[in-house]
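Protein in question reproduced for absentees:

***
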Amino acid sequence: MAGRKINPIVKMVLEFGPILVFFLGYMRLKGQHFMIGGTNYDGFILVTAAFIPLMLITTAILWRLTGHLSKMQITTAVMVVIFGGLTVWLNDPAFIKMKPTIIYLLFGGILGIGLLRGKSYLRVVMEEVVPLKHEGWMILTRRVCVFFLGMAVLNEIVWRTMSTETWVTFKTFVLTIAMFAFFMLQGRIFTEYAVEEGTEADAEADEN
């Protein structure tokens, strides 16, 4: 079901604002330690604790404004609660650092299963935004699947081998820019396999 249209800038702020706030908060509190309830927490843990409700609030606002949330948005919010909560509860930053890996593996795996069945699950969530012929969806799905799995591996390498500050910068900017750049580079698919007006039925017939 398609949601109501909202200002693209408002949508971008709601989706990426919490990530930027997380980055700014970490840069402000990095290296600092706070004693709370007899437990010592560093700045990263406190920023993570603040990030969880902020993410839920912006997701709720997005749902309120559009009347719709994508499966990826819902999954991301759930993962933030689970892994962010574990990070704060166990006072261990490893959990929130693993979150992008789990999300990318989950979606990459789902797309991969669909490809093995000869289907494009990506089409289910994107068709109303980008109508393509069946062949175009299959090509795009294969590329997105590989991209997600590659990002999962890259996130693991960064958080396991580099400093927390490097990972926060990587999470905030590199992953976001990589996502935008990836889809920008798929312009040829969107043009070559675009479904022309009045041919939607033909596209469905191609898939079946």
Q: What stands out?
A: The mean pLDDT is 89. The longest helix spans residues 134-161. The chain has two domains: 1-91, 93-208.
